[in-house]
Amino acid sequence: MNKVAVYPGTFDPITYGHLDILEMGCKIFDEIVICIAERAEKNTLFTLEERVSTVSYIVKDFDNVSVEPLTGLLVKRMEMGGIKFILRGLRAVSDFDYELQMALTNSELDSEIVTVFLPGKHEHLFLSSSIVREVAIHGGDVSKFVPEYVKHKIELKLRGKTCL
Ligand code: ADP
Fold first, then answer.
1. 122 an active-site residue?
2. Dihedral angle of Cα 99, 105, 107, 108, to the nearest 10 degrees
């Protein structure tokens, strides 16, 4: 049977930290569906459509990885596709409370759901989308944190352009 996982997140923008988890996830799962959360409550730099298009480009060479927007409850999307696994990354103790809360909530909503946490790579343990946005907004170089394509999208966005 094919082992399928969703990999949910905001990806505002996608970083090398996200990609580490995706690469490791590909060794465990036969198929991964990246679900990009709308996050209407968060003031995201990129719109949902922009994030979906950027992530789709970045993962285009991964076999068995697809990207889609997520506007409702993750559990509902999983039930629709018969998906049982959630892939998440853990950076440091600071992630743990929130991640545990999410994992327990999702398994309360559907007892068959299992969340799989993978540790981030040590060289990216400090890395988050918010750090990347912060550095870029203040004119810093984000080349070490995100692929060139994403860096270019950030530069466009900060100049007020749409990035589809
Ligand atoms: P959310 O807004 O739901 O936290 P993110 O887009 O920030 O979503 O992250 C999605 C997943 O990727 C989360 O599980 C997060 O912990 C993980 N992640 C992000 N950056 C890193 C990193 N540098 N190392 C390991 N995991 C990471």
1. no
2. 160
138 C-alpha vs ligand 1 centroid, how far in Å? 22
Each residue of 49-59: pLDDT tens digit? 999 999 999 99
Alpha-carbon distance of 46 to 85, in angstroms, equals 27
- Out of 18, 32, 73, 97, give the residue to mutate to test ligand 1, the one with the largest number of ligand atoms within 8 Å of its CB: 18
Domains for the chain: give ranges and CATH numbers: 4-158 (3.40.50.620)
Helices 129-137 & 148-158 angle (0-180, nearest 10): 50
Active-site annotation holds for 130: no
The pLDDT tens digits for 127-137 are 999 999 999 99
> In terms of DSSP H, where are the helices of the chain?
16-28, 48-58, 74-81, 93-109, 129-137, 148-158
Q: Please tell me the distance between residue 160's alpha carbon and the centre of ligand 1 in angstroms.
A: 26
Q: How confident is the model at residue 115 (pLDDT cuts 50, 70, 90)?
A: very high
